């Protein structure tokens, strides 16, 4: 009796397993860095960033040149004895203040560039993510990884070309 119960259980388990739909896990990966570097939108964003950087550098260079010129004028006044000690002190304080403004500009320049970069690239990242999600839904992928986090993956799982096509890059 025990043997019959055991056989019946195995038979039912086998039937249950063979009749249940086993879903294949479908995975894919993309090389988002390569896609990003190939996008025309990124090239336009980089050009805007470069223009902003050049503008900020030019402004800084002008401030430095003006500071150096004013320093030379004050130095000549001091050498000729045309400035009293009180005037010298006042002029030095003005120059130190302007020098600090230049230092602050240099610090702020990096923050401005990073902020502008984030502002320009955010819509591009969203565009790529939306394309990846659309490809995943259309092709039935349950998970799509970025190639940067993979140690190994078969090239047959690379869906980068599908994402490029979705973005209109091919």
From TrEMBL:
Entry coiled-coil feature ranges: 42-84
Pfam families the UniProt entry points to: OmpH
SUPFAM superfamilies, per database record: OmpH-like
Family designation: Belongs to the Skp family.
Gene Ontology cellular component annotations, sorted alphabetically: cytosol
Domain of life from the UniProt record: Bacteria
Keyword Coiled coil: yes
An annotated Gene Ontology molecular function: unfolded protein binding
Native species: Aequorivita vitellina
Keyword field: Coiled coil, Signal
Signal peptide: 1-24
Protein name: OmpH family outer membrane protein
């Amino acid at each position: 009796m025990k043997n019959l119960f055991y056989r019946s259980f195995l038979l039912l388990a086998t039937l249950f397993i063979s009749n249940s739909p086993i879903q294949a896990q479908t995975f894919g990966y993309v090389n988002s860095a390569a896609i990003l570097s190939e996008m025309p939108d990124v090239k336009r964003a980089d050009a805007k960033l470069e223009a902003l950087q050049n503008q900020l550098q030019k402004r800084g260079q002008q401030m430095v040149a003006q500071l150096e010129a004013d320093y030379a004028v004050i130095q000549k006044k001091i050498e000729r004895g045309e400035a009293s000690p009180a005037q010298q002190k006042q002029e030095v304080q003005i120059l130190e203040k302007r020098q600090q403004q230049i230092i602050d500009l240099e610090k702020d320049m990096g923050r401005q560039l990073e902020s502008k970069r984030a502002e320009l690239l955010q819509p591009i990242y969203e565009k790529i993510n939306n394309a990846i999600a659309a490809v995943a839904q259309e092709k039935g992928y349950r998970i799509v990884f970025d190639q940067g986090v993979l140690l190994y993956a078969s090239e047959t799982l690379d869906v980068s070309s599908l994402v490029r096509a979705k973005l209109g890059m091919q």
